[in-house]
Task: structure prediction
Amino acid sequence: MKLKLEKELVAASSVPLVLSILCEGDNYGYALIQRVKELSGGKIEWTDGMLYPVLHWLEDKRFVRSRWTKSEAGRRRKYYSLRPEGRQALQKQKDQWTLVSSTLNQLWRPQHA
Amino acid sequence: MHKLDQLLAEWRRNMKTAPRLGRETLDELENHLRENVDHFVRSGMTEAEAFRRAVTELGTAPRIASEFQKLDESTWLPVKVIIGIGVTEALALTFLLIARMDAGRLTFLLATHVFMITLGYTTTFLVGALGICFVGQRCFSDFTPLRERSLTRVTFILGCVAAGLSAVGVILGMVWAKAEWGRYWAWDAKEIGGLSVVVWQAFFLSFHRFAGGSARGVFGLSVLGNIVVSLSWFGANNYGTGNHSLLLATVAFNVVFFLLGFAPAGWLRPRKMPPPQTLNDE
Result:
């Protein structure tokens, strides 16, 4: 059975996912979606258009900055890069998600009598 | 024209009908579509099939626009303050004019004219005050495209309100002048002032609508609007008195902010000292 994430979880995880991918290096919208698909084995599926409001929100919060560049094929692409404020925000997100994950892991660990 | 370009042009026309999807956002979304179409074509689809699939995956215009709308919910503090001042002023003016009408010092027609003109002029001032706040903040940090779009939309709405109120106020003034003095228009200082403000507001809105409406240009013009209203309102009231020092100070203040608008964003931002490259100079 294909695992489908609840939409609330998809929405909540979008910011840490985008920030984490941008931590690997500058990137643009389409490639960000492909990277999430690749990392999740295609199990995390975003509606493509929903990514852009998230990117603009991150830019508004000054977590990322953007610039238009031309690809080798001559296509204009809007690249996003992480600002120092974005790295701090990512660290906070990491701490929070790690806490949730470790708590759940302890609860769901097989019990040994 | 290439088939894909035709499909994209049609898609773009459809997307443009949704609010909050500016040119740059549409460029970005179009770029995404092109990337996805390429991907599907490489996997064996025809261009038309690939386009349809890519559009479905991107989402509909209303849905994307509604997501962008959520971003606008955080309002810039000066906008909140200025809307608060405008509403308070409208209420105070209403009570004041009703009290004067009750005392028999104003007719309904004259009170309505004064209400419209005062609110129209002060709304123009409030847009100008937003311009000053914009230029001031921009000296320290740049605005994001999202925030700029949201702010220019606010100035357009307030500009429409100001223009409507001023125009109706001038027309009511003409009707009142005909009833009281037997003529609609006599080119006196106040009438010329009122006309100047309406012409200025029409120019401001036209610039907004047809000249690209960049935030920097719009807010720079809104600062100049302060000068037009100051000259039209206080200049007309003080005409012939020779007492123009406050008026000149107001003009000078606004000219300074208008010129500051040409400075690069963040030019007053405190510069951080770069970290030392090495702890050991040897």
The interface with chain A takes residues 25, 27-29, 31-32, 34-36, 57-59, 63-64, 67-68, 70-71, 144-147 of chain B (CB under 8 Å). The two ends of chain B are 66 Å apart (CA to CA). The longest helix of chain B spans residues 145-181. The CA atoms of residues 20 and 146 of chain B lie 9 Å apart.
